[in-house]
Amino acid sequence: MIRAMTHADFAAFWPSFKAIIHAQQSYAFEPDMSLEKAYQLWCELPLLSYVFEQDGEILGSYYLKANAMGPGKHICNCGYMVSEAARGQGIARKMCEHSQIEAQKHGFTAMQFNSVVSSNHAAVRLWHKLGFTTIGTIPKGYQHPQLGMVDCYIMYKALSLA
């Protein structure tokens, strides 16, 4: 079930969120970010935040926001996180599909991911399967803790308004 995220939901998901940012594999967030700062970044600044809940456990979350302001506000941006224990179960796919429907409901005509870490092969593969195109590369845009400097991709998908 995917539903709107509450403050209590974020607190429950915090151990997964913290592990993801601490690993420094996919998000350019400070690894020692506080729960309060993370909540503000993930839940208060975006337009909407959601959880993927199964059997009372929060296994994933995503946010939806405009990628830019003014004349660029018709393109949205999303971020997705799945708990380590729940990876490989199709949760990211379900959240991305859900986010595209929600984006269209809110008038967005396209979705853009600004910085997909190239070494995050599972995410890159999934976004391509879901119709995203790599429209640019940021050379050495991410300092990976094991691999050193790796590229980041800018990925884009037009959303059809039904």
UniProtKB/TrEMBL annotation:
Family annotation (InterPro entries): Acyl_CoA_acyltransferase, GNAT_dom, Mito_N-acetyltransferase
Start and end residues of each N-acetyltransferase domain: 1-160
Transmembrane segments: none
CDD domains found in the cross-reference section: NAT_SF (cd04301)
Protein name: N-acetyltransferase
Organism: Agarivorans gilvus
Lineage start: Bacteria, Pseudomonadati, Pseudomonadota, Gammaproteobacteria, Alteromonadales
